[in-house]
Amino acid sequence: MEKIVINGGKPLNGEIEIGGMKNGALPIIFASILVTNGVSVLENLPAVKDIDLSLEIIESLGAKVERIDRHTARIDATSVKVAEPPASLVRKMRASYYLLGAELGRFGEAVVQYPGGCDFGGRPIDRHIKGFETLGATVTETFSESGKCVRAVTEDGVVGANIFFDDVSVGATINVMLAAATAKGLTIIENAAREPHIVDLANFLNTCGAKVMGAGTPTIKITGVDKNELHGCTYTVVPDMIEAGTYMVAAAATGGKVLIKNVIPKHLEATSTKLAEMGVKIVENDDSVEVSVPSELTATNIKTLPYPGIPTDMQPQFCVLMCVAQGVSKLIEGVFDNRFQYVDQLRNMGASIEVNGRVATISGGSPLYGASVNASDLRAGAAMVIAGLAAQGKTEIENINYINRGYEDIVEKLLAVGADISLVNIED
Ligand code: EPZ
């Protein structure tokens, strides 16, 4: 086991290259099992734990996966069969539930254990189930030796239908897209999620021969194609807007100047706008953004929302920046019930944060001090790294397996921009 050790207080300076979007690559990996005619070559996969797990899951179902290099995988899904994947893999991540949509689309039936993932309070899957039922599946909860499973069965394959989501769900939108790509007839998803990874999945499916229109808007129309029509392709995953946003905030929190390379600035608009409101200077180029801090950072208010709002996956990082900025900020979590579990760790570093339900009030401007903290989930872990970089003294972060699930080479990338950061072995 390892921990991250940071001696804080040094401004970051230099360039950071952003990798492929984890939350875009994951559904595309599961979508590749819909491809029965040829192989999928996926490029710009981030080298993070969740990608390894997803590839292992589809391998366990019979896919032939060849890792061409650290960021490229070749997937031949011809021999995939419907089977319960190993619970030990499924329960380690949220995205494993994309198997439900993908298997349902390919075989008309699916069975998967309940997924794992970060703990933000209850994370029900009722919208996914409603989507599958609307597409003609009978969905039941079953129990096997490996625990609670979801089973979805159709009589003769998935049938297109109109689906209206009462509230936006990234995962349910993706699962319905996966199930509907080879359905009989037209599926219309209303109040669909609009995240860039929804568009990325649609682009992958369409490159393989699917007919998905409107991704990136609240209405997605999917005309089902014959299963044999989905052919292999080479596809490059888009850059990770959350990884980019995390380093933008890190640069700002340390008063540094960093060029964040290989990004799509449009995807970063909400984050860039809020940073600018706090006094950060953002210069947008075609595929990079430069972040610098010409003057003192000031407080702001943020409510996280589905895209194009401020991503909930940037909430803990912004919380740290609000601790550093002068004045009182309000941070409202608009997506999950319980995503402030990490604030005690920041309090241990000297932060003044009051939490009332989904609202955090942050009195910023006092220094943060190094402490021993934990990564309680993926983005909270990233926030601890930022806090450690901004703090005076030494911060030690344990439980970093969470951080490794979503950030490729975080220590190396920060070292390259001047951070005093290292990975240290700890005795079990
Ligand atoms: C995805 O989770 C991401 N995970 C999360 O990324 C991200 O925080 C989230 O979208 C929101 O952007 C992956 O892409 C693997 P949702 P997901 O369905 O799909 C409720 C990260 O750090 N809901 O949009 O699970 C739910 O409880 C992570 O990379 C239901 O009530 O999110 C939440 O309050 C963590 N019923 C809200 O909707 C459902 O059936 C939005 O969840 C589904 C969701």
Structural notes for this entry:
The chain is globular and about 65 Å long. The protein is built from 14 helices and 23 strands. A hairpin with a 2-residue loop joins strand 19 and strand 20 (359-364). The model has no long low-confidence stretch (mean pLDDT 95). 30% of the residues lie in helices and 26% in strands. The chain is of the alpha+beta class and 428 residues long. The structure holds ligand EPZ. Ligand EPZ is lined by residues 23, 26, 94-95, 118, 123-128, 167, 169-172, 311-313, 335-336, 378-379, 406. Ligand EPZ binds next to helix 1, helix 5, helix 6 and helix 12.
SS-derived structural category:
alpha+beta
What proportion strand?
A: 25-35%
The number of helical runs is: 14
Broad shape: globular
The rounded Rg comes to 21 Å
Global mean pLDDT: 95
User: How many strands, what sense, and barrel or not for the largest sheet?
Assistant: 4 strands, mixed
Low-confidence stretches: none
* Structure ligands: ligand EPZ
Brief rundown of the structure:
The chain has 428 residues and is α+β, with helices and mostly antiparallel strands.
